[in-house]
Amino acid sequence: MRDIPLTPTPRASRQKDTRPLHQRLLPEGVDRRPPWLTVKLPAGDGYSKVRTLMRGLDLVTVCEEARCPNIAECWGHGTATFMILGEVCTRACAFCAVTSGRRGGDIDADEPRRVGAAVAQMGLAHAVVTSVDRDDLPDFGAGLFAETIREIRRQAPGTTIEVLTPDFNGSIDSLRVVMAVVPEIFNHNLETIERLYPRVRPKAGYRQSLTLLEQAKKLEPRSRTKSGLMLGLGEEMGEVRQLLTDLRAHDVEIVTIGQYLRPSLKHHPLVRYWTPDEFAELKDFGLRLGFLHVESGPLVRSSYHAREQAVAASAV
Q1: Separation between Cα atoms, residue 128 and residue 163, nearest integer Å
Q2: What are phi and psi of 129, to 5 degrees?
Q3: Yes or no: is domain 39-314 CATH 3.20.20.70?
Q4: Torsions phi, psi of 75, nearest 5?
């Protein structure tokens, strides 16, 4: 019988990481972001005007909530993505910077009118509306999406509309409410490959999201379907190609591909940076699959160049 020591063997001491926070967010061995991820700080008259307008109408933008790296460019051009249904998401995806909680708060029935007013005042040709997940609501927020579309069309006729919705917990009845008002583009992001869903999107389902996108097209063939994904969470090239193949098999027509940037130390680790050449390779692969438009690059986000995407898809 082996003798058991009376005193425990001391554990190896862990050296405290004293690097600045922005460096601790990076992959092991990487001290700074690569040059292709350099962005401008928010500034300028266009940015200030949009920010003032949003605060004046008490509106929330996903540009701010999700800490989008393109906020300076988009706001500088007078464009923004409106986030309805509150600022608290009932899910806690491992990549997302939006605040999460069990309940998302009361519904603001006047919010659609204010979004319509903002779209009209900004003179937008293309408006994007998204939301937090609202699993605490009977219709998962579908009704407010539909009313927001109606208000934009009432106050800004001629503006094309893109909705970026949650999965409505798989409810086709809720999806039907949104598709009944015929958004020009219906967008729902798959975000990542199927293997990573349990860790990255534990309350969502890869196949459920694919089915939602497919059903959206069946319910309203006049709407373009769109999805987005981010790279750097630990996926391999072959898995990303399979995701794109799955999207096309479910009749998705537009796709966006961008680099994941870790919001904080409590979020999913950034595994690696994908290079511009790899993004270009995926764009070429997506176009060969038959997507009408593929926006692929390190700084691409779901609503980045949304107007250009809408024009490109409608021109086919």
Answers
A1: 6
A2: -125, 125
A3: yes
A4: -65, -30
